Structure formats: C-alpha cells, structure tokens
Model the fold of this input.
Amino acid sequence: MSTARPGIPRHLAVIMDGNGRWAERRRRPRVIGHRAGARAVNVCIDFCLERGIEALTLFAFSSENWGRPEEEVGALMKLFLNALDREVDELDRRGVRVRFIGERERFSPAIRQRMEAAEAQTRANARLSLVIAASYGGRQDIAQAARALAAEVAAGRLRPEDIDEAAMGRCVALADLPPPDLFIRTGGDHRVSNFLLWQLAYTELWFTELLWPDMDAATLQRALDDYAGRERRFGLTSAQIAHGATENTSA
Ligand code: FPP
Done:
C-alpha cells in the first residue's frame, strides 16, 4: 500500500442502496434494478482506478438480505455468479485484487468456488483492493473477532488483560487495509445498517439521494470534493492537527 495523498481517500466504503426503487420507478421487477446496480459497480471501480484510491469495499449483500423474497435472493445469486464469471479476468488485467468478507459458507458451492478462484487469481495484484462484503454484518464481524480472541485465551496464548483495541483490530475483517476514510451511501437513508461497525469509527460519512444504479463519476467526485474539504481530527483539536499531531488515528 502506498502513502496517503491529501484529499484522496485511501479506502472508500460504499452502501449501494436504491436498486429496488430504481426498478420500481420504471415499473420493472426489482432484479432489473440489481442488474443496473451491477453496471454502477463498474463505474465505481473505474473511478477508484482513475483517482488512485487503494481500496474499495462494497456492501453487496447483508446477512439480513437472506430474508428477502426467495425470487429476489435467487436473482441476486445468479447476478453474483454471472459477475464472477464475466468480470474477474478484466479486473485481474487491470491490477485489481478481489476478495470477499462475510459468511461465505452460506453461499452455494458454485459461488464459493468462484469466490475462491477470483481471490487466488488476483492475489498478487496491488493497484486496487476490491472487497465485496457478501452475507456480511458488522456485529457478526465483531462477534467472530471476540470468538477468535477468546480461543487464544483458552489456548493460553493470550491474557485477557492484553485484549485491547489493537488486538480486536487485528481480528476483524479488513485488518490488513487502512480503515475506510470515506463512506458513501446512496438511496437517501442516513444510516450505517450494520456495515463495518468497528472499521467506520473515524470514517467520514457522505450520503446522497441518488439511487445506486444512477451512480456516476460526477457524483463520486462530489463526494471526494466534500471529503477533501473536511478536517479529520480523530478526537484531537484543530490546533493539534495544524501542528501535525495526526499520528494517533485510533484514539
Ligand atoms: C440495495 O438496494 C442493494 C442490494 C441489496 C444488492 C446490491 C447488489 C448490487 C449492486 C448488484 C451486484 C453487485 C456486485 C458486487 C456484482 P435495495 O434493493 O435495498 O434497494 P431499495 O432500497 O430501493 O429497495
């Protein structure tokens, strides 16, 4: 990973909301919105590559989304499968490393096999880390980190008093990436919806009414311009930031 460039987030995290409404406004089935949403994913990847953003994490399917009507879940699974078949070679060619976070075991063997193949094929790429959160939940992520640390304690390799933020941070998803600098949510709702709860602690949040399938480079640029104008204080004062005390990004 390279170092930060002023005004450019190193890591962008996105909740792609509004596919269903986009389709309903056109009196089309919701799956048409998800298909259009998949095209917008490519717009977002292109944008990150052009701007030199190092990591992009997309919330593709939450652990709660399994409760949607069977037909919609089935259509989304088909879409994921097709996207994995269609896009991975091109992503690889462009230097994108692909990986998945979430409860992988809940997906079909066909999807799991393609996820693993995509990760293996693109493992050495370093231009952009593309993380797809699939059957992911932030609380579940924190719970699995707590389980991992409890197992370390039970095995006698860790003392309970050594469990601190850094230890937790090593066990949650995305531990090897810088935390998201900028979070974008489309679709008009102003909430985090159980996405990356631990990792978003000091992330700048940006919301738009735009529905995800309408996402374009101009809107992404507006988010970046807004981000570039913000002062990130990480719990410190403006004066401290002005004097370069930005090292403590976890406090
Ligand atoms: C939320 O919109 C979107 C989803 C639950 C699915 C996201 C999936 C994609 C963008 C398509 C493919 C993704 C990849 C990574 C290939 P919603 O259905 O909740 O919209 P609504 O709020 O308008 O109902």
About this structure: Residues 16-21, 34, 37-38, 41, 58, 60-61, 65, 79-80, 83, 132, 187, 212 surround farnesyl diphosphate (CB under 6 Å). The longest strand covers residues 128-136. The beta strands are 11-15, 55-62, 96-101, 128-136, 182-185, 204-207.
